[in-house]
């Protein structure tokens, strides 16, 4: 059983209390070399033991029958010396830091990345509501998976929210076998051993397929994302639903984006519209909204009328900055709810109120925007 011992701190303070009981000395100065007052500093000036100071400042005066006068004197000295508890030591005593780590599995964070801005803000808000501080780890500072795991496991935080990791990420393998509370945000765990909270992309892509078919689209194209798993699972779900309607996106109509060395938006649109009229796509699915808005701009430059000549659908529900006046049709991902659910799940794992894995897939909704209509 963990026992809470008062801090044992040393100091060479010259401060004292005069005959009238008021604090004297050299302001916040103390002899510990780092400018911080210690429990021993406060105890020395207040004329009580270190353990008494610890009990008073932790709110246990009544429980331990410490007199009101002693409590008043200790708190007065603590204020005068600007004492604050050493949070690292306190966390060791209590076994909790009330801090959650948030780490993105993507290797970069570009300025103006609305998706990461939205999800990070949502996690920060949700953590605050749950009375946790949030430690955001910089993806720009490259560390090995082992270094990152040691950082997570080193006591800075009570648990980890990891966003968007690929299943083959070595850090995921380390976290999978750890006792550290971990929740994956935005992705599912293919092995089903880690807790995760994500959007229901299968239903989202079924909604896309059903909407396209109901509007009369029979020839479709896709702007894919290369190796990213989000792109792969979304396209797979789209194909599954289309096959149930007796349709499919042909392989030559699935084009990688220039994010992965593929075609530029202009090249993709020009290629898809260059095929004979009987095979030309009347609708195009873009694996995420940022690509969708770049394709909209390419259509404007090429003189392609949207949605009359080409309907467009994206994913995530984010309106990226664009020269196009259109609002992209998109699957709306409930980011705030995902953050709330992920923080709540991690809190449950930290507190030990449930055993993992905790799994949640949140519903999504297709918004038609201004880029989805019947084919011409």
Tell me about this structure.
With 376 residues, the chain is α/β, with parallel strands linked by helices. It has three domains: 16-93, Orthogonal Bundle (434 Repressor (Amino-terminal Domain)), CATH 1.10.260.40; 99-199 and 335-361, Rossmann fold, CATH 3.40.50.2300; 201-334, Rossmann fold (3-Layer(aba) Sandwich). The protein is built from twelve helices and 14 strands. It has helices at residues 39-46, 50-57, 68-80, 87-94, 114-129, 145-152, 170-176, 201-215, 229-244, 265-274, 289-302, 335-351; strands at 16-17, 23-24, 99-104, 133-136, 159-163, 182-185, 195-199, 220-224, 254-256, 283-286, 311-316, 329-332, 359-362, 365-367. The strands form three sheets. Strands 4-3-5-6-7-13 form a six-stranded parallel beta sheet, with helices on one face. Strands 9-8-10-11-12-14 form a six-stranded mixed beta sheet, with helices on both faces. α11 (289-302) links the parallel β10 (283-286) and β11 (311-316). The termini are far apart. The model is unreliable at 1-33 (pLDDT under 50).
User: Quick check: average pLDDT?
Assistant: 84
User: Order of strands in the sheet with the most strands?
Assistant: 4-3-5-6-7-13
Straight-line N-to-C gap = 73 Å
- The fraction of residues assigned to DSSP E strands is 15-25%
Tell me the count of domains: 3
| Rg, Å, rounded | 29 Å
Poorly predicted segments: 1-33
Please report the first level of CATH classification, the CATH class of the largest domain. Answer: Alpha Beta
Class per helix and strand makeup: alpha/beta
